[in-house]
Design goal:
The chain is about 40% helix and about 20% strand. It is an alpha/beta fold. It is globular.
Length: about 160
């Protein structure tokens, strides 16, 4: 189990905060990793894997024009899926993640494979946002993104 996730779990429990995830590129990895610490039921509400754009629009209520204008892997769509999640899962913190862990999405010179977007909302207000470019294969990029979410939570919860 990842050490930073254990630390985040302790903080969430101490602060009596709950968390939920809207995951595109990480495809459920965040939820799985955050379920590992003891007493995960005290803070983890759950999540939605919205890998396909139709789930972003149909379930999370993301305007298709935002997806068309900015691409499914963008800061704007990441914020929109986090916001959409606030209407589906009752939690204190909602985190959305999109990105490009592998070729075949909307990669460009400015947004290469490895670019990942994270957006967190706490109690209805933007909590933090992050764009980071990771290197390595898909597995490494996804694992590094999970670690990045844990680091950002530690930083912003303390």
């Amino acid at each position: 189990m990842k050490e930073n996730i254990k630390e985040v779990a302790k903080l969430l429990i101490e602060k009596r905060l709950t968390i939920a995830f809207a995951e595109s590129a990480t495809a459920g990895r965040l939820c799985a990793e955050f379920s590992m610490p003891a007493d995960a039921g005290k803070y983890l509400k759950g999540g939605l894997v919205c890998y396909d754009a139709s789930l972003k629009t149909d379930i999370l209520g993301v305007d298709s024009e935002i997806i068309e204008k900015y691409t499914p892997e963008s800061a704007q769509v990441t914020e929109a899926i986090a916001l959409g999640l606030t209407h589906l899962i009752d939690a204190d913190i909602h985190i959305g993640v999109t990105g490009l862990p592998a070729p075949g999405g909307s990669e460009t010179f400015e947004k290469p494979v490895g670019t990942m977007f994270i957006h967190a909302i706490k109690n209805g207000e933007s909590f933090f946002t992050d764009r980071h470019v990771f290197s390595g294969n898909s597995e490494a990029i996804i694992n590094d993104t999970v670690e990045r979410v844990a680091q950002l939570l530690l930083k912003n919860l303390n």
